[in-house]
Amino acid sequence: MLAAALALAGGAGAALAQEAMYTAAATMPSPGTGIVRQQLHVYRFGENPTTDVESTTIYEAETSIAYGIARDFAGYLVVPLQYEVDELENGDEDDDKGVDDLEAMLKWRFYKDDSGGLDTLRAALIVGAAFASGDDDDFSSGSVNPRVGAVVTSVQGRHGFNQDLSYQWNTGGDAEDNFGGEGPDDAIRAGSAYVYRIAPVAYTADSKGAWYLTAEVNTLYETGGDVDVRFAPGIMYEGWRWAIEVMGQLPIYQDVDERPEFEWGIGVGVRFSF
Amino acid sequence: MHRFLAVVIVPMVLGGCASSGGGMEENAVVHAGTAADLEATRSVEPIREESATLWVNGLGCPQCSSNIDAQFARVRGVDEARVDLGTGTVTLALSGKERPSPRRLSEAVLDAGFTLVKIEAPAVVVAAPAPSAGGAGVQ
Prior knowledge:
A: Porin; 12-stranded antiparallel barrel; 1 helix; globular; B: Alpha-Beta Plaits; 4-stranded antiparallel β-sheet
């Protein structure tokens, strides 16, 4: 069920530096090291045209672990726990909790050009799948849904830019429980993230952290024709071994026929290196 | 599909413009090693000095430092690694009988996901003739 939310958040999977919340980056932990990322999301959706649900609020705790397997190779595992509250037409509320599809991904950085002390251009392939968590069908698709994608990251001084693009073959899923990208239609996702370092303006020998403003545009296109485009502004602090991030999410453009429209979202996250 | 292309391509173009708008900062560092510098990073002879300074490209963020720090922690003979994002350098404190070679240090930098341009330690840079003439330096 959270495939939609995970879809927009999960194109990236777990992360490392210069990575915003909803868009992947071509960065990864080095061999033998890892990153634990914990994100808390709230997503608000409007009326579901296929049911008697007036609105839905999804609270999600997404834990992701990234581990450096070898030089330029990293593995990612994402576990999303969800609590969903439906407000029904008759005024009642219905709530449920469960585990959405898990996600296992491999990232291979196949290109790297470090042109300066700070500057770099990198590209990576991402291959993996979202797969059934074992939870009931309200939360998990009950299927294995392969995904392939690519991401490019550019850092030039204080400016960072990430662009990801992925395709997910949804082999299962239920249209009634689809909040975007969870099937049965396949899902194409594209994320663009601009990351701007606001402080320090210039690094010094004593610099141990940095503040960033982030702005993302995340698009989900389902092969059935539904389109969902969101804008996500945020702020992030990145230290040497940890980071904290706060993001908002608003709809830019939606054309969805068989599922509820997205209204807003917020997210907070922390990351730790180990 | 045409709608998808429109909503994907527009952000990509906008983002691309934003990212290329004003790259350099006050202390932007451009490391450029000479051929001799590059050759020196491939040496398998252990570094006998007590310290070495590595010029590294691609160190764009604080968490990058943690990656490189973790890799040097696994290199025998390296006691400490100090990362300076301002100059794009990593200063290593070396000790013990088993010292790392420039090649081993270069491998560690590559494992961390960055690019080693030059190693400054007397035993290493001796082969580099007139580095300033070759464009090496910090700008």
